[in-house]
């Protein structure tokens, strides 16, 4: 997966607008609705671990992976200070052993970026880390509102076509990403799916 160097530089310089420092409001909504049943979670693209820590606070056993070593090092310390035990890993999620099939998958901005670079390897990874009934909450940029400074975007018909061989779509909602700076809130998709 390419792009690791760009993300590494962003974490070194602190230019990480995707990191608001608070758990995703959309993730909180779905968790509060009890729509992510099970015990084990795999978060890909965990960044500074804010959402992984939220899962752990709610009693999930969490494995979280990110491509950027410096982000994961800082995240391990943040989780330790919060008293949360999380299995953080560094690497290319499409080219590493992530262990068990998980009950829940979560990503805030991985699918919308990787889909144009290496969708087939990403789908193979999803196949390996999920089982029938696994729920996946995917938060992705919405093509109805592309922005020069915003995240990559995907049209609804494309994510349905790309992901439907493995996952049944349970719910699609539009929401706005919370970013830093807070006044920039690009339109996004919240896609809740279940493994076929």
Topology, please?
Elements: H1 4-13, H2 25-32, E1 40-44, H3 50-57, E2 61-66, H4 69-82, E3 87-90, E4 102-108, H5 111-129, E5 130-142, E6 153-154, H6 156-163, E7 167-176, E8 187-195
Parallel strand pairs: 1-2, 1-4, 2-3, 4-5, 5-6
Antiparallel strand pairs: 5-8, 7-8
Condensed summary:
This protein is of the alpha/beta class. It is 34% helix and 29% strand.
Q: Roughly how many Å apart are the termini? A: 26 Å
Within CATH, the superfamily carries the name Vaccinia Virus protein VP39
Q: Please, how many domains?
A: 1
Oligomer description: single chain
Major sheet characteristics? 8 strands, mixed
List SSEs in N-to-C order.
Answer: HHEHEHEEHEEHEE
Query: What's the number of helices?
Result: 6
Total strands: the figure is 8
Low-confidence stretches: none
How big is the Rg? 15 Å
- Assign an overall shape: globular
At the first level of CATH, what is the class? Alpha Beta
What structural category arises from helix and sheet content? Answer: alpha/beta
- Strand percentage, roughly? 25-35%
Q: Could you report the average pLDDT, rounded to the nearest whole number? A: 90
If classified by CATH, what would the architecture be?
3-Layer(aba) Sandwich
CATH topology: Rossmann fold
Please estimate the helix content. 25-40%
